[in-house]
Design goal:
The complex is a heterodimer of chains A (427) and B (267). Residues 270-276 of chain A have low confidence and may be disordered. Helices cover 28% and strands 32% of the residues of chain A. The relative contact order of chain A is 0.10. Chain A is α/β, with parallel strands linked by helices. Chain A has a six-stranded mixed β-sheet, sandwiched between helices. In chain A, strands 10, 12, 14, 15, 17 and 18 form a six-stranded mixed β-sheet that branches. A three-stranded antiparallel β-sheet of chain A has the order 2-1-4. Chain A has two domains: 10-247, P-loop containing nucleotide triphosphate hydrolases (Rossmann fold), CATH 3.40.50; 256-268 and 278-399, abc- transporter (atp binding component) like domain (Coagulation Factor XIII, Chain A, domain 1, Distorted Sandwich), CATH 2.70.50.60. Chain A is built from ten helices and 18 strands. Helix content of chain B is 76%, strand content 0%. The longest helix of chain B has 32 residues, at 235-266. Chain B is globular. Chain B starts with a helix and ends with a helix. The model of chain B has no long low-confidence stretch (mean pLDDT 87). Classes of the chains: A alpha/beta (427), B mainly alpha (267). The A-B interface holds A 19-20, 27-32, 34, 43-44, 46, 84-88, 100, 102, 104-105, 108-109, 111, 113-114, 118, 121-123, 125-127, 130-131 and B 11, 13-14, 17-18, 21, 25, 97-105, 171, 174-178, 181, 258-262, 264-266.
């Protein structure tokens, strides 16, 4: 799609949104006191503020699907509301061309006390549809939502799935030029989610534009042409879905790894009980440090499946040893061993270890399946008598673009021939 | 202010739907629903008629005979005004879910309150008409062709009521006591408007000016002249109504526009 040729459907330029901070006691502010203190103007002027968005710029072309990702509180929903026109930008510019239909929150825009039928008319009127137009599409809306007789019940009696179904049905049946969708699809069941996705794809096929917010990264990847990653209200990275989502996953995993590690260190520094079970041995050799490195020699807590990985052990023998074995093992958090090996199994015959030494085991491609893993490291005698045995020393997160199940993920690809047709995954 | 008027005009279909919904919600579940919108003003009229027609018979009330008729010609429109402002002021807070989470033209909500109460007022007009016919049959020179100008006064009063409802609604989002202040203010205004007494009965000159300058007074006078005194209001009174309408809309709508940027966050 030629974004440059067609005028953009959504233009966001250097957008900032600041909320007024809810100063304690502000809610109790009364007109009486404002008038008595002559502070009416001051009370209505923005005071202390919280920045929800800052310096956000992007353009979305017609027919393009644009995804927003980021952690909780990163400003995704605020951005969606500003684009929808619900919130006004504090500074910067937002321009949307064409009719917008927004699905922002569960049951938003529905009146609980009145029937689904009347709500459909009100909702569609808000979206700019004439009454006759709504009447014409009414049956197809109800059918899409799968509500049946429930359409004449007050909306307050609906289940959350019904809310979403009706909201989505109205939103897509108004033929919007721009569709804004927040998280809500996660509420419906699988079948409805598929129906929605098909409908969104139709919408895109017709040249409609999509702005999509979700925590489901796989859905974002599947649906979107470009993705913006927001972090605490500021743009972190924008580009093709794969690149942005991988970078985001990596950042999240690194963060988790660091937290894991911090928790572990705090744990072993604490009381002796649990940490003793994680470390034992005679002390004839001592493990000083273990690091997980990537192909470039950088320390990592997170790897893509199939990436090069090196486990580096630095140990010290206070007195000279002539019988020593270095071993590593990778296990799942539940303690199931995935893989283990040691220098003895590999055929190294020990001669002398005195003072400090570093041993590395390099894997050109560590083909673990996506998931969490833990690393055990040991130095022991050939008969197995431990000098220093450390369990769960490192936590490691492995991700895959299209994860399978289990713990092993060999390099593979699918092929087919014969009477069969399918759509291969989009890259 | 004009942009708000344009927005309301653009969503007139939605306005109609919402007013219809409002009325249906009120009348649903009660067979006598429709009659309740007559009972309330009629009861209020009965109380005032009793108090001022029989208990405290005003000395200066010359020309207001029959008093009950004089009273309802001013009282019914006043009830429209006061309920519109009260409901309008609360409309944004009451529909917070609608404007906070969905793309919704917030300016419509106070206007919905104004129009749905206008419908109640219009539904009460047959009572007024019957009363006037009975009064005429009893030999009082009330009603007449001048009553046909009534829609014009109502249309002129719309911007005043609508503008004030908008402004009050926006204020009520930011300050939680607007409703309490408004309730008291409306009571005060009610007695400052010549509804239960004729303007001529105010003999203390400064007070007469206060009542006369009250922006709602020209409208009340017009209703009374058209329906009770069988008089077509003069040009000055029409002008005063027009000025009141313009001022009410400008002040209320610009207050709403000024506060509209922060409305969604504060509600």
């Amino acid at each position: 799609m030629s974004v440059a040729a067609a005028p953009a459907a959504i233009v966001v330029e250097n957008l900032a949104k600041r909320y007024r901070r809810a100063v304690p006691g502000y809610q109790l502010r009364t007109l009486k006191s404002a008038l008595l203190d002559r502070s009416l103007v001051r009370d209505l002027a923005p005071g202390e503020t919280i920045t929800a968005l800052d310096g956000v710029s992007f353009e979305v072309g017609r027919g393009e699907a644009f995804g927003l990702i980021g952690g909780n509180g990163s400003g995704k929903s605020t951005l969606l509301k500003v684009v929808a026109g619900i919130l006004k930008p504090t500074s910067g510019r937002v321009a949307v061309s064409g009719r917008i239909s927004a699905l922002i929150e569960l049951g938003a825009g529905f009146h609980p006390e009145i029937s689904g039928r009347e709500n459909v008319f009100i909702n569609a009127a808000v979206l700019g549809l004439e009454r006759a137009e709504v009447a014409r599409r009414f049956d197809s809306i109800v059918e899409f939502a799968g509500l049946g007789d429930f359409i004449d019940e007050p909306v307050k009696n609906y289940s959350s799935g019904m809310y979403v179904r009706l909201g989505f049905a109205v939103a897509v049946h108004t033929d919007p030029d721009v569709l804004l969708v927040d998280e809500v699809l996660a509420v419906g069941d699988e079948a409805f989610a598929h129906k929605c996705l098909r409908r969104i794809e139709e919408h895109l096929g017709r040249g409609g534009t999509l702005l999509f917010v979700s925590h489901s990264l796989s859905l974002v990847e599947e649906l979107c042409d470009r993705v913006l990653w927001l972090e605490r209200g500021t743009p972190r990275l924008q580009g093709p879905p794969r690149r942005v989502i991988d970078a985001y996953r990596l950042a999240v995993a690194e963060e988790e790894g660091r937290e894991h590690q911090a928790a572990r260190e705090a744990g072993s520094a604490g009381e002796a009980g649990p940490s003793e079970a994680l470390r034992w041995g005679s002390g004839e050799a001592e493990i000083l440090r273990v690091r997980l490195l990537d192909g470039a020699g950088e320390e990592r807590y997170h790897l893509q499946s199939g990436e090069a990985a090196t486990i580096e052990i630095t140990a010290r023998a206070p007195r000279a040893l002539d019988d020593f074995v270095f071993g590593v093992a990778i296990a799942t958090p539940r303690g199931e061993m995935v893989w283990g090996t040691n220098t003895d199994l590999a055929g190294f015959a020990p001669r002398r270890f005195a003072g400090e030494a570093t041993v590395r085991v390099r894997c050109p491609a560590l083909r673990l399946a996506a998931g969490e893993y833990q690393l055990d490291v040991a130095v022991h005698a050939r008969n197995g008598a431990p000098y220093d045995y450390r369990r769960r020393l490192l936590a490691l997160t492995v991700t895959e673009p299209r994860p399978g199940v289990g713990t092993y993920s060999p390099e593979h690809r699918w092929e087919s021939e014969g009477e069969l047709d399918w759509e291969p995954p989009r890259e | 202010m004009l942009s708000i008027a344009r927005e309301i005009l653009r969503f007139r279909g939605l306005l109609l739907t919402l007013v219809g919904r409002e009325l249906k919600a009120r009348y649903r579940g009660s067979v006598l629903g429709f009659f309740w919108s007559l009972v309330n003003p009629t009861l209020l009229a009965a109380v005032y008629s009793f108090v001022f027609g029989f208990v405290f018979v005003p000395r200066q009330a010359a020309g207001t005979d029959p008093y009950a008729l004089f009273l309802i010609t001013g009282l019914f429109p006043w009830i429209w005004l006061s309920t519109s402002l009260l409901e309008g002021a609360l409309s944004l807070v009451a529909n917070a879910g609608l404007i906070r989470k969905a793309v919704f033209p917030a300016a419509l909500l106070p206007i919905v309150a104004v129009f749905s109460n206008l419908v109640h007022f219009l539904l009460a007009l047959p009572v007024l008409a019957v009363a006037l016919v009975v009064g005429r049959a009893l030999g009082h020179p009330v009603g007449g062709w001048s009553a046909l100008l009534l829609p014009l006064v109502i249309v002129l009063e719309l911007p005043l009521v609508g503008g004030l409802a908008l402004g009050l609604a926006a204020l009520n989002v930011h300050f939680k006591d607007v409703k309490d202040i408004l309730t008291n203010l409306l009571t005060l205004l009610f007695f400052m408007t010549p509804v239960i007494y004729p303007l001529a009965a105010v003999t203390f000159r400064p007070l007469w000016w206060v009542v006369r300058l009250n922006p709602f007074t020209p409208f009340t006078l017009a209703y009374q002249q058209l329906l009770f005194f069988h008089v077509v209001p003069d040009a000055t009174l029409w002008l005063q109504m027009a000025i009141g309408a313009a001022l009410g809309w400008v002040i209320g709508a610009s207050l709403f526009a000024r506060l509209s940027d922060t409305l969604v966050e504060a509600v």
